Backbone:
């Protein structure tokens, strides 16, 4: 019985970790809608002075 109390939480942790990996592999990655797809283009060039 004591062995069961030690192994059951470890088994449950393994299942949760395996399901997380399974979800990462199967589901497409969603891009953050607030994050731009590409960096913005520069609008003004800087010239060296001095």
Residues:
């Amino acid at each position: 019985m004591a062995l069961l109390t030690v192994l059951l939480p470890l088994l449950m942790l393994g299942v949760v970790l395996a399901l997380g990996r399974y979800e990462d592999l199967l589901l497409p990655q969603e891009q953050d809608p607030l994050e731009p797809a590409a960096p913005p283009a520069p609008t003004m060039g800087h010239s060296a002075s001095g």
